[in-house]
């Protein structure tokens, strides 16, 4: 114990002196802080279900890149291993897998976790076992509110940010009257609720909403209701195939471009599979776009070379989250959950994915979000040239303010 | 304007027409299922997968060979039908003498494999297929503006359903088919090649699914799971209409499309359940289905 304190003091007070003592007792002692000298990362994702395009195999590629890049850059004195599994979008499967990883395979962190039900289930297991959960795929704002805990980081986006970001921007650009097409389950309803609050606060009006079963293949009758309402904007408070079919059918019925569609949660893979003809002019909020600047392009093209698709914000976010985690492990020379979490909160997140990102007390990684508008086919000059970046929404405005958080950790 | 339970009449008519479009798909798919069940006694769970493959075949023809929608409409059904023949010869034939349950399991497994393969190749989001140019645009039918393509779907599927019914009920070929179902041994004794007829029937039923797939491609996203989303409803249609009843499946398909359309207007949340509520009711009150003959 005395040795640890001594070493820590030495390291804090005089890094140069500390660095010269690499083979002394200090280093040996510090090394022992890594459990079995291996940092083991688990990627638990949807490998073949409805979210496998936006997360899935691409997320695993991103995780591999994060590990390889970190090892090449930092040459750490610990090993980094990656394990992966398919959670099939089921909370129980995800929780069981995470438990098995923590108990038997000494996994230090479980990451990705697309679909809110799997994320919420794994967070609880992680808390019980005192290991980390790094969430990039799931969107529910419950993760950092009612269900928050101190071993979870929510990295890429949440429904508050994507819904309210688009809602606010569209109202400010003149889309004052809204009609919602809402998937009739918790996710859709909370998306509608969050967005409605923002629309009203910005002087807009909600003319109506229709709740449709999940999943629906034919949304045309709901679209006709939205058309009859005369609203300027049709807000799509749904996701995946529901959103895709709604957009396609809106274009078939000539609803767009007379009325504007606003995707409250869409990914570039959705846009790409629908094509620009059906999606042109749509607004959506994303945390990341591959073609934003030289940094994003460089990374994304490397990703593309391995995956043959451009990355979504979930996949890019996973790279960022894992890199940040590994940097924190290296900085603290420990893989102890609380030590690493404290360090992760301390270090700002600056990489190609996020500028001036900050991991908050409630577990939310607050960073800038971007309002995108989908290009017309004539404005797109190469594959995946899909968006105009219309506005940067600063992190503090994009996400729910900490003061309004319902996370018990904040108000204790 | 006249209101019906708070909904303007014209809007209601529009919604009913949309219901008919969906009903047309139900009718086409359940027709194929009914033909196959009626004549082969196979509960063909792979029907949704063949429908999906029909849609992908249309997309593939356009993307890789430049053959457009109408070409696909002619080419894809025989192509998918041929695939059905192969499946029948290679797989279904071997279990023909067993309980229908084995056929169900086999085709269910086949559907999973086919969908898995497409998912691996194309991803779950799928591909987009454009409405053919000559059918683009919308038509003002007085009470609503409906895309021309949707009207086309209603017309084509009604024609196909009617002619299938006529062939099976009113022609000599149809009478052979019906005889072969009733008593295969006796029919064979009259010199009719029953195994061939059964294979062709399966191929035909599957071709209908392929046709439905081509017609669905411009409306729905062409995606690996598009069939499994639909197939459960279609099975409910077959059960309500009466297993194996051809007329029953067509009428019920269109009727349920309407009912579903109306539910979407008055109680959208229940629109995916209403079909199954009806199915439960029918099973309780008339177990053989609306048009079925009780055994």
Concise synopsis of the structure shown:
Helix content of chain A is 45%, strand content 17%. Chain A is an alpha/beta fold and 412 residues long.
Describe this structure in words.
- The complex is a heterodimer of chains A (412) and B (295).
- The N terminus of chain A is likely disordered.
- With 412 residues, chain A is α/β, with parallel strands linked by helices.
- Chain A contains 16 helices and 14 strands.
- The longest helix of chain A is centred in the last third of the chain and has 20 residues.
- Chain B has 295 residues and is mainly alpha-helical.
- A two-stranded antiparallel sheet of chain B has the order 1-2. Chain B has a two-stranded antiparallel ribbon with strand order 3-4.
- The longest helix of chain B has 32 residues.
- The chains are: A alpha/beta (412), B mainly alpha (295).
- Chains A and B meet through β7, α9, α10 and α11 of A and α1, α4, α9 and α10 of B.
Order of helices and strands of chain B: EEHHHHEEHHHHHHH
Count of individual domains of chain A? 3
- The CATH architecture of the largest domain in chain A is 3-Layer(aba) Sandwich
Number of distinct beta strands of chain A? 14
Biggest sheet features of chain A: 5 strands, parallel
CATH architecture of chain B: Orthogonal Bundle
Main sheet strand line-up of chain A: 2-1-3-4-5
| Fold-level CATH name of chain B | ABC transporter involved in vitamin B12 uptake, BtuC
Q: Taking all residues together, what is the mean pLDDT of chain A? A: 89
Structural class of chain A: alpha/beta
Low-confidence stretches of chain B: none
Category from helices, strands and their pairing of chain B: mainly alpha
How far apart lie the N and C ends of chain B? 50 Å
């Amino acid at each position: 114990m005395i040795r640890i304190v001594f070493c820590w003091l030495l390291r804090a007070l005089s890094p140069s002196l500390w660095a010269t003592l690499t083979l002394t007792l200090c280093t040996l002692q510090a090394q022992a802080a890594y459990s079995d000298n291996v940092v083991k990362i688990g990627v638990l994702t949807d490998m073949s279900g409805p979210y496998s395009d936006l997360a899935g195999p691409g997320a695993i590629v991103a995780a591999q890149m994060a590990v390889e890049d970190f090892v090449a850059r930092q040459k750490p004195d610990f090993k980094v291993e990656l394990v992966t599994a398919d959670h099939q979008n089921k909370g129980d499967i995800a929780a069981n897998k995470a438990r098995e990883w923590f108990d038997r395979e000494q996994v230090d962190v479980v990451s990705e976790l697309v679909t809110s039900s799997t994320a919420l289930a794994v967070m609880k297991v992680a808390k019980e076992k005192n290991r980390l959960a790094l969430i990039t795929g799931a969107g529910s704002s419950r993760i950092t509110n009612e269900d928050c805990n101190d071993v979870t980081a929510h990295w890429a986006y949440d429904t508050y940010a994507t819904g309210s970001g688009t809602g606010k921007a569209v109202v400010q650009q003149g889309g004052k009257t809204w009609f919602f097409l809402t998937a009739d389950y918790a996710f859709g309803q909370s998306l509608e609720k969050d967005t409605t609050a923002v629309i009203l606060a910005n002087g807009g009006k909600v003319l109506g909403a229709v709740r449709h079963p999940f999943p629906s293949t034919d949304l045309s009758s709901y679209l006709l209701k939205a058309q009859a309402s005369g609203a300027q904007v049709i807000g799509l408070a749904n996701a995946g195939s529901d959103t895709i079919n709604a957009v396609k059918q809106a274009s078939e019925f000539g609803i767009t471009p007379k009325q504007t569609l606003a995707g409250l949660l869409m990914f570039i893979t959705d846009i790409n599979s629908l094509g620009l003809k059906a999606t042109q002019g749509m607004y959506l909020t994303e945390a990341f776009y591959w073609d934003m600047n030289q940094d994003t392009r460089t990374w994304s093209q490397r990703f593309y070379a391995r995956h043959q698709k451009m990355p979504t914000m979930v996949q890019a976010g996973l790279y960022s989250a894992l890199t940040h985690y590994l940097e924190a492990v290296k900085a603290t020379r420990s893989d102890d959950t609380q030590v690493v979490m404290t360090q992760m909160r301390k270090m700002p997140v600056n990489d190609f994915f996020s500028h001036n990102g900050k991991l908050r007390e409630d577990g939310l990684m607050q960073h800038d979000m971007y309002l995108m508008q989908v290009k017309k086919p004539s404005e797109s000059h190469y594959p995946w040239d899909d968006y105009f970046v219309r506005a940067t929404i600063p992190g503090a405005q994009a996400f729910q303010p900490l003061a309004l958080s319902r996370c018990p950790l904040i108000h204790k | 304007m006249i209101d019906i339970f708070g909904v303007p009449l014209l809007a209601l008519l529009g919604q009913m027409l949309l219901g008919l479009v969906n009903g047309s798909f139900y009718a086409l798919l359940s027709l194929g299922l009914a033909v196959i069940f009626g004549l082969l006694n196979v509960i063909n769970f792979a029907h949704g997968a063949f429908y999906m493959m029909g849609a992908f075949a249309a997309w593939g023809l356009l993307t890789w060979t430049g053959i457009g929608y109408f070409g696909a409409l002619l080419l894809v059904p025989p192509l998918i039908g041929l695939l059905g023949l192969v499946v029948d010869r290679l797989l279904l034939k071997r279990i023909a003498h067993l309980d229908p349950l084995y056929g169900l399991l086999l085709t269910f497994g086949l559907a999973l494999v086919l969908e898995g393969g497409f998912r691996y190749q194309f991803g779950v989001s799928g591909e987009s297929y454009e409405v053919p140019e000559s059918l683009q645009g919308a038509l003002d039918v007085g009470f609503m503006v409906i895309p021309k393509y949707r009207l086309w779907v209603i017309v084509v599927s009604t024609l196909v359903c009617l002619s299938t019914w006529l062939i099976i009920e009113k022609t000599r070929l149809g009478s052979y088919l019906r005889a072969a179902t009733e008593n295969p041994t006796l029919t064979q004794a009259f010199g009719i090649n029953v195994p061939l007829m059964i294979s062709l029937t399966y191929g035909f039923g599957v071709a209908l699914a392929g046709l439905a797939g081509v017609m669905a491609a411009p409306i729905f996203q062409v995606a690996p799971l598009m069939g499994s989303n639909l197939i459960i409803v279609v099975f409910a249609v077959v059960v309500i209409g009466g297993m194996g009843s051809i007329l029953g499946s067509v009428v019920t398909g269109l009727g349920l499309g309407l009912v579903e359309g109306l539910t979407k207007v008055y109680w959208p949340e229940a629109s995916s359940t209403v079909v199954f509520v009806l199915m439960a009711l029918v099973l309780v009150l008339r177990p053989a289905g609306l048009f079925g003959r009780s055994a």
